[in-house]
Design the sequence.
């Protein structure tokens, strides 16, 4: 039995020796840096237009900073290991505002549905930028994060697995469409990589555990993706049969506690999940998006109790849910640079976004003909 505990906090690599082993040694980028930018912005336009069309969203502005006391910042997980950048703002104030750089806009988006007066079936999409300082910096994790953070208002009757699956399928169609556009621009992309699967396959985290009961989460995902290169894993956060959740998830946005029923009639849990694909360039698992139907006031309390975080229920965001002041919703964050990597056949996030990287990683990349933007 391999250690599963250390596998819960996130998908990153933990040493640069492992990074060196993971990156391809015979890499040649199909596109030049400028061609990469042309294709990237073409894909960006297709995805933003497609998400708005498929999910009835409107593009809106999104915060880069929020106040700490609002409770709106995304804590990413429930073990407290990833803390936001904080600073004081407000020259001349007797009590400066304690401000945080967002790690994601997950909670803000739900409150924004009310602010923008979205009706049921309508929503918002954002071009979100964030800082996550507590990541190990490898080929697909950066301290700089860019996402299409989106949120859609729903009715209580839509809090179902069928609704979740339909939404996921719509998002996948948009990503496939963007892949077709960039391949038309640069046909060499199609010669260099296998085609993007036209359909996603769905599997519950419990079913995945049953397939590979002795493997930690990342290795279970890797084994699955080698045979099924585009999947949506349902139910991330609830403890599975082995006593561990598939991955740690924050207790105050996605609903991972609601009981559902599997295709063969067994009880399962969770109305959330991740889209993962097989990256043929790095030959590794590659996460594109995390998303889910959001908590109700009842499931919020239950999840916060499980996580030992009931003190946070006094924060404005949590009180707004408890007081029915913000609507029921579904939402997610699609990694922009992660998606560009996948569509453009890239080995490293730094080829499609500008961030900071340790010299050790830069040296490893250059030895393998991977040149990151600076």
Sequence:
């Amino acid at each position: 039995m391999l250690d599963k505990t250390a596998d819960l906090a996130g998908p990153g690599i933990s040493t640069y020796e492992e990074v060196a082993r993971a990156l391809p040694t015979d890499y040649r980028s199909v596109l030049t840096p400028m061609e990469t930018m042309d294709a990237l912005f073409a894909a960006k336009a297709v995805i933003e237009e497609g998400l708005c069309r498929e999910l009835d969203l409107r593009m809106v502005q999104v915060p880069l900073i929020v106040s700490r006391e609002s409770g709106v910042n995304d804590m990413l997980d429930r073990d407290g290991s990833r803390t936001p950048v904080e600073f004081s703002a407000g020259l001349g104030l007797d009590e400066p505002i304690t401000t945080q750089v967002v790690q994601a806009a997950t909670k803000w988006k739900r409150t924004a549905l009310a602010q923008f007066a979205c009706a049921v079936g309508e929503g918002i999409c954002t071009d979100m930028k964030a800082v996550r300082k507590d990541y190990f910096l490898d080929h697909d994790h950066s301290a700089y994060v860019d996402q299409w953070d989106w949120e859609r208002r729903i009715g209580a009757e839509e809090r179902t697995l069928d609704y979740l699956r339909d939404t996921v399928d719509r998002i996948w169609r948009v990503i496939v469409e963007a892949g077709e556009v960039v391949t038309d621009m640069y046909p060499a992309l199609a010669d260099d990589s296998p085609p993007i699967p036209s359909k996603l396959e769905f599997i519950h985290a419990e079913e995945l555990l049953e397939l590979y009961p002795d493997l930690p989460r990342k290795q279970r995902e890797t084994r699955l993706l080698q045979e099924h290169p585009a999947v949506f894993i349902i139910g991330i956060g609830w403890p599975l049969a082995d006593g561990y959740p598939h991955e740690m998830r924050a207790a105050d946005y996605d609903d991972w506690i609601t009981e559902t029923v599997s295709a063969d009639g067994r009880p399962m849990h969770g109305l959330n999940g991740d889209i993962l694909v097989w990256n043929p360039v790095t030959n590794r698992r590659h996460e594109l998006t995390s998303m889910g139907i959001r908590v109700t006031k009842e499931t919020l309390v239950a999840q916060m109790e499980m996580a030992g975080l009931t003190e946070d229920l006094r924060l404005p965001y949590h009180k707004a849910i408890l007081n029915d002041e913000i609507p029921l919703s579904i939402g997610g964050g699609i990694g922009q640079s992660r998606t560009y990597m996948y569509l453009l056949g890239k080995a490293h996030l730094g080829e499609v976004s500008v961030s900071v990287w340790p010299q050790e990683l830069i040296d490893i990349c250059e030895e393998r003909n991977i040149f990151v933007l600076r």
